[in-house]
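User: Show me sequence and structure for the first protein, then do the same for the second.

Assistant: Starting with the first protein.
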Amino acid sequence: MQVDRSCVVSSAWCACLFLLFSTLSARVTEVGGTHQSIPPSVVKLWASAFGGEMKSISAKYSGSQLLQKKYKEFERAVRVEEIDGLRLVKRLAEDMEEMFHKKAQAMKRLVEAAEEAHLQHEEDPNLQYEYFNAVLINEVDEEGKRVELGGEFILQPNDHFNNLSVNLSLSVVQVPTNMYNKDSAIVNGVYWSEALNKVFVDNFERDPSLIWQYFGSAKGFFRQYPGIKWKPDEHGVIAFDCRNRKWYIQAATSPKDVVILVDVSGSMKGLRLTIARQTVSSILDTLGDDDFFNIIAYNEELHYVEPCLNGTLVQADVTNKDHFREHLDKLFAQGIGMLDIALTEAFNLLSDFNETGRGSECSQAIMLVTDGAVDTYDAIFAKYNWPERKVRIFPYLIGRESAFADNLKWMACANKGYFTQISTLADVQENVMEYLHVLSRPKVIDREHDTVWTEAYIDSTVSQKHHLSRDGQGPVLMTTVAMPVFSTKNETRNRGILLGVVGTDVPVSELLKTIPKYKLGIHGYAFAITNNGYILTHPDLRPLYGDGKKRRKPNYSSVDLSEVEWEDKDDTLRNAMVNRKTGTFSMEVKKSVDKGVRSPTFRNAQTHINKHFFADGVALSRGHGKFFFRGNVTVEEGLHDLEHPDVALADEWTYCNTDEHPEHRYLSQIEAIKLYLSGHEPHLQCDKELIQEVLFDAVVTAPLEAYWTSLVLNKSENSDKGVEIAYLGTRTGLSRINLFVVPDELTNQDFLTAEDKEGVFNADHFPLWYKRAAEQVPGTFVYSLPFNTGSENKSVVLASTAIQLLDERKSPIAAAVGIQMKLEFFQKKFWTASRQCAALDGKCSISCDDENINCYLIDNNGFVLVAEDYTLTGKFFGEAEGAVMSKLLQMGSFKRVTLYDYQALCWVYSESSDSGHTLLDPYFAFFSAVKWILTELVIFLVEFNLYSWWYSDLTAKAQRIGRTMQVPCDTEYPAFVSERTIKENTGNIDCDGCIKSFVIQQIPSSNLFMVVVDNKCDCSMFEPITMDPVEIMYILPAHNESLKCERLKMQKDRRRPDTCHPFHPEENSMECGGAAGLTPSLVATLLCVLLALFPR
């Protein structure tokens, strides 16, 4: 596959593509030069003086000329090669596949051990067994004695697990709060699964890169290795249930199409409807991205919960499920329930949707949520479902009454389903889970241990809170590899008993380690997507938002590739990857490099598919990004210069794999390279090519250390300490840093440290200063002001320049060097230059000190570095001088580029009912259930009237409250780029008869412009030009509902999972559930009364 979208451009980068020129106000008019009051020659003089001095300072202290000379000396010793994108992406796919295979093999060993242990175990209902409960370990009672299941459990901090205290010899067992720790089924399961401890330890010894390994039991308990203590939330609750996690559901069942029927007849009033809503919500929790669903409410009529989706199913992604949940609160009970109409609609819906080929094309099910059925409706089943019985029926009987239980159970048994009764809100979770065991039967009987990989996610549950980044900065993206565990006992074969699911977590950062970043170039990157087109890893994926403690975005785990590669308008790239095609795709791309506001760049996208769940791709930029060079020095030379104290290597790049063996884990990358080159450690795996190149860079850049040292020793230099740091970085991730002041005197002490995420080499990007330097004309410096520092004491300016290997236009970038200087020092140089003039008598006709003019120094993206009003530092020029910025856009000195953000969050005002939140609160749920029981004890026949009075303070009269909330949205925002060919310009603006003049002059050898503006005129009638994002309204507000409907219906290409297990002929369909009676004791009832009344 090869697609090429070419366009005519005037330079090697993308700033001139797809530009939207701003329209001019009627007030901006051309005015003759006779009104020009600012001499352009004087401004040019100022610009030349400032530019000359700043280049002299930047070049001197950075050592750029020396470094360029050193690379020139090695010019004949290097070989320039064009990067083969397809070969590169194939290597990436192979490396990822090897890593995936290792994780899958570890899970296979766990599966084999678990199935063998269960095979040898005989169930004992009276078994007593003390195990290490994750919550109770090391706990003592008031007398200082160990609590039951809380034995002594040795825990020690381990750096591989982010310095959390763990036990590498044993696992722990977590049991959900709503389950009994010593239940016979749990104790038996815990007992036989102890056999996994040896395999956990063995797996970790074989593959030390493994982190958490676990077994989620179908009985509800969760065995986790290494052992770690769990802590309940502030309410003393651990709500985590492994069975409703995506990795469990995805491994246990096949994809499915589901229609949920909800009874909203009059008999469902009160708590029954509340339980029904929660039941539906819990069913939605069990659906994943490979499933499709719809919800239909029924009484004497049918009511699609989302009316616009009448007659179709939608993908069960996070956005769609949340949309339906919002509509559940709108259900109300009235009328008579006509189940025959609802069943007929459901069967027709599943049949018609299956014929479209857009669904799962695997399992099908109808979930029936009702308080009773007056008939078995066998005629409907005979017409639509027999004899094949392709659609399973899962009835959920709501309430305590069992009068209709037989009819509903018959439906389940006659249609290969399962019947459960849900009497209270506390029963919902456990009973909903039963259907998963039924759907897993065919896979169990087939003995198909399908390996599944989840999409990227951030798990914030108690058990998964340990998923922290290596630097402790917060949660990170994970993917999980999981595999089902089956009962292999012959006597239970036709029952298809699922024992549980084993899994291990793989941080996305582990995937990034397989990416050869030095081969991708400065603007290149790698990415991977799932079979549904959702991003697994991509540098533009932003799953978190907020300052300080980050929060997950609502739809962070289902961000489609088209939402970040938005130039792929027709989804050509996305669909090719989803459909496992291999090839090259070229497109013009506008990609910001600095928090959404900096310069765009070109890139090509090339994709290759691996053999697992994910599709991999790499993106390469044009020009210098297409080339790579190889240098050659001796190992002795390279090691000597690599060991200099000012040398550091990219912390997140993999020169040597130090995670493979425990004895290597404490080695730095430089120590690992030395050990590897010594030849004494054959088990240490390293990237030979990268090491050779980093040794070359170490030798070439070594002279800068002595050069910088000589500047430090010369006390007459830098007497005002304006220049604080000199730094360099090379294409191999090598960096050198020199301080011209003592560390405590640094204005910005975070620069080039781990806290400065954008300023250092990361797994998925080069430093920001490096990228910006590479975009500039060779030999020029790019000056930038870090964002959000303009009015702070830590204000600094960075000056960087790129070092090219050759004189040719497409020469690869070898390195970048630069300095950090105080903003105050930089601004002082500007004001000094702006006071110069060519008059012989020294009397200048104009100066930036004059009250009638304003002087600005802006960069090539329009951001203010120097202004008389210090508060404007770091802000966009158009906010201060809207009229002038409009004129610059009109004259072509600057161009406007429209960028898009399809992962944005917008603030909206929302009216919502308390009842929705009450439903999800466990305390309200408990007290609601207690009140309902008490009501039924007092009077059975009028339970709904009394219930309505009793329950009113919780849900029936829930007040409508208003609040602002952030919701996913699409936005567009402008970026501005200077036109390189226009070095200077003048203009006049008519402000209601007053002529405002200005001059703009480029600062030589830089990305800066001096703008001098006549301020005598009031031009406030011109609106400021801002860079604020604007929400994209795709259609007029009056049609928003139809727009939402169309977007819900829209389904992008997706690839179904490779396996499907809907039925098995040996399946025992008579294992179809039963009614669970509720017969509370008198003591329990009185206790409930006391608990209910106490808070009041």
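Switching to the second protein now.
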Amino acid sequence: MQLPTHLLPVLVLLSAQPLGRALVPGPCKSPIETQCNFLCDCTDCSDEAQCGYSRASPGLGTPVTCDFEQDNCGWQDISTSGYRWVRDRARAQPEGPVAHTDHTQGTDLGWYMGVGTHRGTEAAVAALRSPVLREAGPTCELRLWYHAVSGDVAGLQLELTHSAETLTLWQSSGPWSSGWQELAVTTGRIPGDFRVTFSATRNATHKGAVALDDVEFWDCGLPTPQASCALAHHRCRNAACIEPHQLCDGEDNCGDRSDEDPLTCSHHTGTNFETGLGLWSHTEGPAWNLSTSGPKGSAWPRRDHSRNSAQGSFLVSTAKPGNPAVLLSPQLQASGSRNCSLIFYHYLHGSKDAHLELLLWMQGPGAPQAPVLLRHRHGELGAAWVRDQVDIRSAHPFRILLTGETGPGGIVGLDDLILSDHCTVIPETSACDPPNPTSPVGAPLSPQSSLQGSCEPGQLACGDLCVPPEQLCDFQPQCAQGEDERECGTTDFEAAAAGGWQDSSIGRLQWGRQEAQGIRATAGHFLSLQRAWGQLRAEARALTPVLGPSGPHCELHLAYYFHSHPRGFLALALVESGSRELVWQAPGDSSGAWTVVRVLLGAHRRPFQLELVALVDVEAPGLQGAGIDNVTMRDCSPTVTTETDREVTCNFEWGMCGWHLGHLTDVHWRRVESHSSGNDHTTGQGFFMLLDPAEPPARGRHANLLTGPQVPAVPEQCLSFWFQLHGPRIGTLRLAMQRDGEEEIQLWSGSGTHGNRWHQAWATLRHQLGPSSKYQLLFQGLRDGYDGIMALDDVTVRPGTCPAPQRCSFEESTCSFSTGGQGLWKRQNSASGTATKGPWADHTTETAQGHYMIVATSPDMLPQGHVASLTSEEHQPLLHPTCLTFWYHLSLRSPGTLRVRVEEGRQHQTLSISEHGGPAWRLGSMDVWAEQAWKVVFEAVAAGVEHSYVALDDILLQDGPCPQPGSCDFESGLCGWSQVAWPGLGGYSWDWSSGATPSRYSQPAMDHTLGTETGHFAFFETSVLGSGGRAAWLRSEPLPATKASCLRFWYHMGFPEHFYKGELRVLLVSTRGQLVAWAQGGQLRHQWLEAQVEVVSSEEFQVVFEATLSGQPVQGPIALDDIEYLPRQHCQWPAPSPEDTAVPMSVAAAVSGALVFLTLLVLLGLTGWCWLRKGGGWPFWRNRHSAAPGFDNILFNADQVTLPAAVTGDP
């Protein structure tokens, strides 16, 4: 039960208390007994380093944390098999990470401790143990986040070992929800040294992938010695100070047990149930049972409170609702003007239907007949012993009644009942029957407490209806008077039921109904923040009953006041599937006046709950406080519709039209206005939909933007939209359609960067008309990349089919290509095990999962001379010359001829490709001129060769004429150059932009081709590489073997002057290996520079531009423009200019430079001689793969690469 991540700093600051112990100036050597005790004894907190956390607590009440971002914080793997814990992150495991993101950052850049899938068959345990920790206080709580997939792990366990015993703090065998799950356990007071161990168990059927992150120790430090104590505070023997209510409360708050000294507490009467019930007694009916640690895996307490031991005793009740167990105190004298206080520790866990009530039963003449309810706890409070205190003033003798009941699987527990010195026991003279514990006075404040009649337990009776629990609070009334929706969050707090809101606080603050008074409100009641007796978490929490399902228009309206200066917060969270999402937070500068707000909740599955969370600095001067009133849930039924729901066409200028956010994950699209790093498409200054996959605190896998149910008016519609996919490692954008009762239909998808510009895409919607043929549209942004943005704008729907798309990767569909009557062309991937043998990977994703089109040209499938056609839909007329590019793959055995024909009426343009195949995809291109509508036809003409095929992928139309192979000015795109987002290099891609286009990444102000800010270039921002990113590749199409060719290009680099970090390299890559042909480090010149590389190769190869770092990340772009590959031409080296040769310098500088140069020559000579003596090659060689013999004889000469004649002969 953790606050949203960005609220935690507020809580940390608020809970901090000043240290009384003087910090030792560093460096310091603290005694061993003060190390790892959750407190800083040294100024630099070095005494708390590597103690299972990386940031030590600056004071009491603040957490010490390990997020594993820098190191393992002292946690060690103590496993005895190959099933072991390692510090890891998702990006380092491209084949299947333990978790796709860490919990701290919510991206694959962050680190966690993980134990991967183990291939063995024997059962094994992976154990991760903390360093030695010391002296945990009684309020100590351990919180962590774990990631486990049901079916992967046999069991998880958290243990604490100290000198006396090993305590099982938590144990589970699942099932576990998807994603990161929070675990919070209290340790209780642990004197001396102890360790914590988190372990995972695997067996033959459970392979055991688990991850652990964000380990936090909360409120674990003991109080430190003080020179003096505040007024009314108790001074311990060790000079620490504690609050008055902590004296004689059954907990070692001082740390030396002096606050629980028998002499000091001699007038208190405590019952710890170690030897029985003491002064307390049972009534007839269900009983409170004495117990010790219960069955493993149940909600039973694993320790008592008195001894914090599995051998300790306590009381438990499993009484069913409506028939509670009752514990009765002895008869006590009238307290008069003094308080008789009862301190007690309770435990409610395992059921949301658990109830614990404390009632005052006054006796004697004139006393009320019915018991008075003094305290009521309800619901799930976690596996913890929670402190409470009741102060009683009674003019009559009285007894105290404690009643407990719970739902299936739940436990209500009691321990350490302590009566204060003003509670005087009356000797028993006569017995009398206790009141009926099921009387309405003590009834829980929930809708289930209404009259049941003849209905089953848990059902609500209204008239002749019995409403089952799953239909309560579902925003669709079943009862005529709406009784089933009455206590479901909507309330003005005038009724005691409070709209079903229940306080679930376990700390020093709580939510409670209060009558309005003073200047803040008029007459009536509201929900206010109040002091409480709990000892655990500081914040106050209140929950609604289980709600849902809700519709997309669901809103919450409420009035609030909030004032906590200078620290504090008031927030509303949505609790769903074990996780919390912040949906609203009061501004930090709230004045304290009542304010009305509206909060969009949206569509959620059942069950979900709303939770109010607040914290104020009650010790600060002034009117510190928070209140809630007039809560209203509006339009929450899933059946609620509005006029705008049918507006699919939308430019987002005035709202979201019929589109709404999906709230099933915590990742959301946002409607934003044009800003410095992004403009909309409609006007350049308006609104658009944006998704930043790295925006905290999201942890979900995707964000959804969807319509409500739509009724089609025509059989075919064309949906067009404009999108952006921009960034060095952006994920996937998908468009899908969902028909009622059918599986989702994938219409379109795009992955990776498409350049820093808006692109248009189309998808044809095909419908079966009818009153029940409803459909929904869904744009889904996948978080499978975290550096970049996704954006949507100008969505339009019109009748009819769409024109042929300008881009097709075949990942989602055939893009409406027609395969003719024979249907010989097929869409497939190599991972599916289909019959047609083809390339092992597609061109788009370069994986076996990627799709492409293929036709088998073997004689049994396509006889020699026969033709298999693949025909596009009709394209619109072209206003400008256009380049049609496509990637093709031919089998090694000649499949025949691939003909590409552009049909414009009776005019045809034809390109024929007939060559031997190879291992690589090759680029084909042809210039297209078409003043009328036109189609493109791909024809495979078979040669009659067995086991042959032709494959196609990544068909693209780009403005402008086709460039020469290996050349590009980047004005229309990347030409034939491909971004290679290889996982082994970090998964980064080069991008494409212009200086005038807003971008969040630094880039050149103008290009080289046009010399203006509207010109385009390829670029890469090296700062995104991070500590684990290696490089980004920009790769050419395959180029034929050559005896002499020249590669010219212009590059732009800009790094801070004293941070020589970035580097641009030119690699030559072939089947025989790769080498560095040219390299240049970063420099602060901010201008375009020309470079040339002369290349010779005896086989087909590719040129790769690699952007990389040689040190820690630093902001600086590397850009490329005007790449020109000149086959069969030597580079023309320009003559040195006067500026290059006539550089003025002083004589002293010249002499010094000459001496340095001569010294370097001598050193280089000696180094080379030693290297040769050892049989090595020249150290300038850069052959990254030792298994690349084809490049062993490469020699370097300035910017030229020359292959000796012995290896450059024609094949």
